[in-house]
Amino acid sequence: MRVIWPFSGEIEHPEPGEVIFADEAGNAHARRWSNRQSALSAVRAETGEVLIVAEGLHDSAQSDIAQLM
Questions:
Q1: What is the pLDDT of residues 19-30, one digit of tens each?
Q2: Among residues 34, 39, 40, which one has the least CA distance to residue 14?
C-alpha cells in the first residue's frame, strides 16, 4: 500500500484507483493531480536538482513564461 507523507505529518492513504505520483521505492509524492505535495519530495537546502514545470494559457503567457525561465 502506498502512503503520502504530507507536510502536516499525518499519513494519508490514496483511494484505490486514485491518480498518484510515486517513485520506484513506492513513496507517493502527490495525489489529486498534485495539489497535495509530499514532504518527502520538498526542496531543502541539501537538494541538488529540481524540476519546475510551468505553463500558461492566458493572453500574456508566452512572455510570462519566457520571463520566468
A1: 777 788 777 777
A2: 34
